[in-house]
Give the backbone structure.
Amino acid sequence: MAICELRGLVKRYKEVTALNHFDLEVKEGEILGLLGPNGSGKTTAINCLLGLLRYDEGEVSVYGQSPDSRDPGLKGRIGLVPSDLAYFEELSVLDNLRYFAGLYESDKHRQKRMTGEAIAFTGLEKYRKFAAKKLSGGLKRRLNIACGIVHSPEFLVLDEPTLALDAQSRNYVLDGVRKLNQNGSTVLYTTHYLEEAQDLCDRIVIIDQGRNMATGTLQELIGLIDATESVHIELSSQEDQGRVLDLCRSFDGLVDLTGNAGSLTVKLAPPGHHLARLIDILRQEGIAYSTIYSQLPSLNDVFLSLTGKALRE
């Protein structure tokens, strides 16, 4: 079931079209990745979805309601972790969370439980009395997440939450997102890091120049392009190269075959289990090799094929 839908969304800033008839659907229980380069329209789409930005054309529905709804029940079901740090620098970790908990809950005992759970979830127990401005970059990101999840939202929107983080802090955040999803939150996750989308998300939307270029699982997206699997082989003896080339020429799905000085590359389509097949054949023929590995198409290949440019450009 879709809990959030954007249909034909258009947002213009004078001469710039930030969203160009953009469509998006978030299904209950999933982690949906919104993947695109900086300036592709990710944050604009998020702001329209949350009712923070007016759009020029199209429709937005969240739990069957307009994001402009004044229904406090709707607001309580949604959480936002923005790309910019959204808390009070002068307040302590605990006081920040007390403030955000108070926006959703008036009962002091429930507020205390909510803040305690958010602090524990983000691993900020040792820093609860620290002023936010005194925290490291990674801890600031954790506090940003804690403020967005303190009310245990059913639908959580995270806008590039790992921006400018080191690898260790990034992994901590990604593990936290997985746990939130396992605990029942539906997640919309925007990023321009393809490895995050590939490893974290159930489905991925590729956005570029404000348009939905493609939507699907990783395998569904790879299936949209003319993809090949490349198997690279380093033979133990160059004398076996001719035999291996002859064997490979008989393969179904052979796209390209090259060999030089005992080093071979076999390109086959569609991508699949060609590596295991080649290993079996070499073993049966008694042909020794020092190295063999496969290169499968990636999300970056999909992005390059659909947009004509690499993700980082």
